[in-house]
Design brief:
Blueprint (H helix, E strand, L loop, with lengths): L20 E5 L2 E4 L4 E4 L2 H4 L8 H13 L10 H14 L3 E5 L2 H16 L3 E5 L8 H5 L4 H4 L9 E4 L4 H6 L5 E6 L13 H14 L2 E5 L13 H5 L5 E4 L10 E5 L1 H6 L13 H16 L2 H15 L7 E5 L2 E5 L3 H10 L2 E2 L8 E4 L7 H12 L5
Parallel strand pairs: 3-13, 5-6, 5-7, 7-8, 8-9
Antiparallel strand pairs: 1-2, 2-3, 4-10, 9-10, 11-12, 12-14
Helix pairs in contact: 2-11, 3-11
Bound molecules: pyridoxal-5'-phosphate (PLP).
Length: 380
């Protein structure tokens, strides 16, 4: 008789690193043996200001000591300040705070269905937007969507960045179209400014709401506050999470005045959304990004990687700012090699593309360590 193995108390989700992580500082994390690891995975693209930035830690600690939590049933100065700061940073007019990326996207899609009265959505091949049901409806990942096919909202799926397909698409009956301005999980896929402008024009023509999922591309990562500024297109809604509060769980649905004006009190809501701890962390995050020149650092670091990886096993550096893809025919072996040198990078849905999404204050020392390690890689 075979004995069943005991189930772990913690349900398995992602395949974890082969070490126990106990501490983080700037662009490095440390394991339980005191070994340092260069974090080009950025804590899952979350740690925009680096691990445990002292200003973020202080803001969170001070806030916890004065008021750990009250829901939106009470008006809080810290929440009002956070709303003013993030809308100004993003160039939008109004914000609804929630707790995660999927929740931000779920609410954005719900708003599109609610305000237009339409029943269909549109999204793009390779797009990834989260694990709740509306977010799954617009996600191109059969492994997680197929069990729920019958529960999903009908969605028109178009090829990303393709002008001809966009011109031919019929958006009548489409409530909202959602996209990652740079498709991350798909392997760091970009589109042209021209395509973004054509998409905006198409949405205007059909009364479809344009939703940018900036959960990875926002908060300065591309060298501009949001991708909306980089591509010169103002969407109707922007969703944010991940780097928004440097790792304190937080999501945001940023919107234009015309969307906000059509929403009634009570259409959206959340117990924890806009909690004081997350709002304090958001304020400190924007402060650090702006006062420490992190968007400029993202641009400079990207330029350096592009230049210094030429002639290595990496044949192409994809993406913008510090959301980068390293294309290599030997991506899997390269990832293992980097791991053996205590460098963490991400994989992607494209087996030839590794992803870099380090803290925006990634140091010169980290960059040179990565560049040296890549040049030292011996092709199998
Ligand atoms: C582009 C994008 N959208 C949405 C999500 C979902 O965010 P969360 O895991 O916070 O629900 C993710 C998460 O990886 C993401 O990368």
């Amino acid at each position: 008789m075979t004995m069943a193995l005991p189930l772990p108390a913690l349900l398995p989700t992602y395949a974890p690193y082969p070490f126990l992580l106990v501490r983080g500082e700037g662009d490095r994390v440390f394991d339980d043996r005191g070994q340092a690891w260069w974090d080009f995975y950025g804590g899952h693209c979350v740690c925009a200001t680096g691990h445990s930035h002292p200003k973020v830690v202080k803001a969170v600690t001070d806030q916890a000591a004065s008021l750990l939590f009250y829901s939106a049933a009470a008006a809080l100065p810290v929440r009002d300040q956070a709303a003013t700061r993030i809308t100004a940073f993003a160039g939008m007019d109004s914000v609804f705070f929630c707790n995660s990326g999927a929740e931000a996207n779920e609410n954005a899609l719900k708003v599109a269905l609610l305000l237009t009265g339409r029943k269909k959505l549109a999204s793009f091949e390779g797009g990834w937007h989260g694990r709740t049901l509306l977010a799954l409806s617009v996600t191109d990942d059969p492994k997680i969507t197929e069990p729920f096919t019958d529960q999903l909202v009908p969605t028109l799926r178009l090829p990303f960045g393709n002008l001809t397909a966009l011109a031919a698409a019929d958006f009548s009956g489409i409530a909202g179209v959602i996209l990652e301005p740079i498709q991350s999980m798909a392997g760091i896929k970009t589109a042209s400014r021209e395509w973004f402008q054509a998409l905006r024009a198409k949405c205007d023509e059909f009364g479809t709401l344009l939703i940018f999922d900036e959960i990875q591309t926002g908060m300065g990562r591309l060298g501009t506050p949001f991708a909306a500024q980089l591509y010169g297109v103002r969407p109707d809604l922007i969703t944010s999470a991940k780097g928004l509060a440097s790792g304190v769980p937080m999501g945001a649905l940023l919107m234009s005045a015309s969307v906000a004006a059509k929403l009634q009190g009570g259409d959206l809501g959340s117990t924890f959304g806009g909690g004081p701890l997350a709002c304090a962390a958001l304020l400190a995050t924007v402060d650090v990004i702006e006062s420490e020149g992190l968007m400029a650092n993202a641009r400079t670091a990207a330029a350096r990687l592009r230049q210094e990886l030429t002639g290595s096993v990496v044949t192409e550096v994809l993406g913008e700012g510090l959301l980068l893809g390293l294309r290599s025919a030997h991506a899997a072996a390269l990832k293992k090699h980097l791991m053996s040198r205590n460098i963490l990078v991400g994989g992607s849905g494209d087996p030839t593309v590794l992803r870099l999404m380090p803290p925006l204050n990634v140091s010169g020392e980290a960059l040179i360590t990565l560049i040296t390690a890549i040049h030292a890689f011996a092709k199998p």
